[in-house]
Amino acid sequence: MRNLLLPILLLISTEALALGWSSGGGELFLDASNPWFVRNTKSVSYCVRIDEANFGISEDRAAELVTSSFAYWTRFFATSSIWQNWGVAHQTFHRVNCNSLANADVTFLFGTLDPLLPQERKQLSTPERRIGIAVRTDYDLSTMRGRGFIYLSPQEGKLALKHGIGKIDRPWSYENGALVNLVLTHELGHVFGYRHDSTLFPMGERFTDDLLDPIYARAYAPISRALESGKVSELSSTLMDNCFEESEVQNVPENRSLLAFYGVREGSRCIRVVQAGNSLRVFSRVQPESAWVLTGTGLVEASTRKELAGPTIYIPPEQSALPREKQVFGDIRNSRYLTLPGGVIESATVRYQTVDRHVQRDLALVKSPLESHLSGFWNGISIPDALNASSFSLFTTVPGSSEKDRR
Ligand SMILES: [Zn+2]
What we know:
single chain; alpha+beta; 9-stranded antiparallel sheet; 7-stranded mixed sheet; 10 helices; 16 strands; disordered C terminus; binds zinc ion
């Protein structure tokens, strides 16, 4: 049975719709946030369409980044045998031509809305106010298989993103498409069933918006490169690694506070925080070319664990009408909503002191499956890591071991 949602597009992404009004929730989700593909789908087609002149990168580069984003989620969902059972992101993804939206399961639109019908375009109302969006246009209730598109606004031209002041100019050209990679990965996260979740990289509600901020852009560019190379584990022990420009230390109080918080000596503008087991080491240096100097060490003390919820799969009633062997999750009984485990968040306290013992502080270390936060509280202000640092500890914890169902 086809559940054709056109012309009313089902907007999977909960990025605020520019309709002039918004709701505070209370809607029935049902299958709306199901992964587009589950374990009965073995192969997924996708196509790439781009307005090269206005978007900011070439078609070849865009296609490379699409491959990289698929690979990221494939690796992510391969970290647990529990996830393998649901078959999310376990498909093979192959590229096809892009003549219409019906051609491929997932159509990637870089700065062009060409394949959309006029009424479909209307549903997007003000695309220039969106950085990116994932839209499911069709969902087949019997096969539990979706179809749709991911659109990213171009940096130039008639559809150019209107991102307002303080944001990076020509964001997609920046560092060879580093930000495109991260926005794509965010939008694909929606395709694989994740809603916004600020504890999970890169699914925070404001993640794509923040990325266009020059400070974030610079901090995330190395992460984007690591994701693309598949070498995320190399970042695993580095919680923070950043060098500020001279002016960013002089003019941005938050940056000065961050350096002072760790007791970095006057004149140094680079900081690196590395974790190895139960110990934390903080290094600093005067500028990017000088040698790292050990500034302080920390000891990870108490630690607590909290299990996160992952994507939810709603099993449509149409499934129960099928003979059991034809049902996609026929082995699951008495459950309409399956909540996949999302991993474990570990929180720990860290006792930190500089090598000269002049500075002693308590830090909070929070690790989720794909990222870590290190923060502290000092002189009445909180010192976050996220603003200035590529604070990532990828694949450091494994997803929770229990499966959770709820009706
Ligand atoms: Zn989103």
